[in-house]
Amino acid sequence: QKALESLDEVLRGLESGLSSDLVALDIRRALQYLGEITGEVTTDDLLENIFSHFCIGK
């Protein structure tokens, strides 16, 4: 369901003329959800990605 909703967001962004940067974020999110469905992306991968991009304090 989340993958489908993310793909809908991509289409809405393209149709409304949203900047390519923002559409790319929606595409990345959709690919993430699709990867979870196919098993190509695991929860550990998600956590690693989050912690590698954000400084989360104690």
Q: Please state the average pLDDT score.
A: 81
Q: What number of domains?
A: 1
Question: How many strand units?
Answer: 0
Number of helices, counting only DSSP H or I runs of 4 residues or more: 3
User: What is the H/E string?
Assistant: HHH
Poorly predicted sequence stretches spanning 5 or more consecutive residues: none
Shape: flat
Query: How far is it from the N-terminal to the C-terminal residue, by CA?
Result: 33 Å
| SS class | mainly alpha
Helix content: over 70%
Strand content: under 5%
Radius of gyration over C-alpha positions, nearest whole angstrom: 13 Å
What does the main sheet amount to?
Answer: none
How would you sum up this structure in a few lines?
The protein has helices at 2-15, 20-38, 43-53. With 58 residues, the chain is mainly α. It is flat, with a radius of gyration of 13 Å.
Question: Mind explaining what this structure looks like?
Answer:
- The structure is a single chain.
- By secondary structure, the chain is an all-alpha fold.
- Helices cover 76% and strands 0% of the residues.
- The chain contains three helices and no strands.
- Helix 1 packs antiparallel against helix 2.
- The longest helix has 19 residues.
- The mean pLDDT is 81.
What is the element layout, followed by pairings?
Blueprint: H1 2-15, H2 20-38, H3 43-53
